[in-house]
Amino acid sequence: MLDWNGFKNTLQHNQVAVFGLGKSGLSTIKALVENEITVVAWDDDPEKQEQANKLGADIKDLTKIGLSNFDYLILSPGVPYTFNPHPVVDNAHQYECAIIGDVELLHLLKIPTQTIGITGTNGKSTSTALMTHILNECGLKAKEAGNIGIPVLDLEWKDKLDFLVLELSSYQLDLTPSFRPDYSILLNISPDHLDRHGSMKAYVESKSIILDGTGVGVVDIDDDFAQVLFDKFFLEGKRKYIPVSVFHEVPEGFFVKNDNLYQNHLGENQELANLSDLPSLKGHHNYQNIVCCIVTGLQIGLDLNQMVEALKTFPGLPHRQFVVSSQSQITFINDSKATNAEAAAKALSSYENIYWIAGGRAKENGLQGLEIFKDKVIKTFLIGEAEENFAQFLLKNNFEVMICHDLENATKQAYESAKNDNNPSTILLSPACASWDQFSSFEERGDAFTSYVQELVKV
After folding, report:
1. How far is it, in rounded angstroms, from Cα 23 to Cα 9?
2. Model-level pTM?
3. Which residues are bridge partners to 325 per DSSP?
4. How confident is the model at residue 458 (pLDDT cuts 50, 70, 90)?
5. Tens digit of pLDDT for each residue in 189-209?
6. Alpha-carbon distance 28 to 77, whole Å?
7. 3-class DSSP state of 398
């Protein structure tokens, strides 16, 4: 059970502010109120205000009242914090009110289990779900939470867990001044969210938080940013740091070669497992997720053979290269979670004869780097705010392009084109964009695609 009494004994005012009333904010209010802690909450959305009020929060504009009598400001990860901070952040600093997120609050409540934290620009959700699956298949009890969609304070603690597996975004890590996972995984770092962090340096610093403190740190060193962090923390020696790679051999670490996982120790390479026949983990990029999870499992003490068997039964994620339908010669893939070019590259590299649906609200680098997949893509169907700019980029790189404006039309047009193809083909939703121009989330976008596909294949 969580130690609410111990936490309450540390409070001076028995009053906590909550700003930003998304899923994690409302979850936090519910938990605080149930444990008799006074909550003052604010969000610009009147509907969210009403929801918070029904949960027992007092609704006040926290940017306009002094926060000197509050023990904490619990901030939604979506609220700008470090770069161009929201006025509520400045208000809290002025009154020396501690700013934390819900993960840090869970830590202050003394999490009654070991924790595995996973971060990276891409692959966080897949690795979090995969790590949880492996633990459960190996006979332990584990749950996933955090950025993967389940707020940490919504978890039930009646039955003891062996592990809590947390997907942690850079925004969430910024709000964890003292929480450090027992086992940490850093998958990769590439430019993303720079409008929130202000610079690549600041973004990397946010990611680096997960490697601080004691425990075990598993780091894929295939990109320069992750390599620099590994070198820095390895020299500091606070944790046991283990390097992994899916592209080259690493001394005293783990690597993939010819679809096989190896461990290097004292200059000797030992073959551990073959990774080629895993139906829900297609594509070379998934080796990164697999290897980091297996290496973490080995550090925990899990059996290698059991972990390999668990890989074969992993169902995948609904919005990450998920097979929606496969009929005749056409396979429909929902990769709605690919919200930047690097994530879309993972999917484009995994299939042939692609009818690609892309677009939405573009990230800073647009489609840069995806021109190398021209020979895999038969035609691109563009939607959303980015469609005109994307069209210019793709046409310049000799892609065939159709402007479709919205996802329903794009799905229909892609299907009509693929039906006339004599070869097996893939209709791939991998937008390389945020969803917020036309949808509330990548999940809603992926669900819409699934419903459009289901209607089409009935015909």
Report:
1. 27
2. 0.83
3. 332
4. confident
5. 988 777 788 899 999 999 999
6. 13
7. coil
